[in-house]
Amino acid sequence: MSAPSARLLNTIRFIGQEKDGVQFNIGRRNFAKDIIFEFLGVTAAQIYCYRDFPLRSTYEVTFMGDYLCQEAWNKCLESKDVSPISNFRVEPLFASRVRTVTVCMQNPYVKEQDIRLFLRKYCDVLGVGQKEMDYDEMWNGNRKYTVRFKRKIGGFECPPASFYIGGVKGYLYYYGQPKTCRKCGEQGHIAVMCPNIFCRNCLETGHEAKECKKPKSCNLCDSTEHMFKDCPGRHKTTLSHLRH
Fold first, then answer.
1. What is the pLDDT of residue 84?
2. Which residues, by range, are in coiled-coil regions (predicted)?
3. Domain-wise residue ranges, the chain
């Protein structure tokens, strides 16, 4: 029996790595003990389904909820180079590359074209953004985009939960988004509990922008040759609208 390749809700797949021509395989009961119970720290009651495919050294774990699945996935990412997870290629079957991303800018006059250009640094934007309207058909300031995440080692490229376009701060969120600090961008904590000093220039922790030794860059296209106000890709608009 072969393992399916379709998207599966709340499911993570583990495939034994091959070394010296031999594929790693520990058997169903040992996988449950070493990976599910000890490494992931979940109980049998928190598992909806656990399937194994012995001929392919493959195991699929389906969790009772999306929070459990996301927590397990985060643990796998954090320890992907450490035993026992390093013995497996881990795939997020719960994650679809195509998602709906909601973007909110603190200044609603930021042009939709600039938001799309920013998002393209992290994902393929499928079409234009749609304004989110309330029951009275008034725009609430949010825009929704259908995007296709780009693949990277260990999963998909995730756009930042908070960012700047010019001097205007923006936020975005989507279903299944990892818990991310909207101050420093790191995963695992939220902004009110952030322990980091964050640089808005290079987007790294450990120092502030005034101490940054890296050249300033355009936060729309990442070029060091110009800033946002002179970006050739920027949609021209009335500058007074962007003052905040």
1. 92
2. none
3. 11-92, 98-234
pLDDT of residue 239: 43
Cα-based angle 204, 210, 215 (whole degrees, multiple of 5): 65
Token digits of residue 45: 């009651």
- Assign 94 to helix, strand or coil: coil
**For 167-183, what is the mean pLDDT?**
82
Closest residue by Cα to residue 155 from 52, 81, 76, 82: 76
**Token digits of residue 215:** 């050249």
Cβ neighbours for 141, distance < 8 A, ≥ 6 positions apart: 104, 105, 108, 132
d(CA 239, CA 139): 22
Check if CATH label 3.40.50.2300 holds for domain 11-92.
no
Q: Is the peptide bond before 84 cis (omega within 30 degrees of 0)?
A: yes
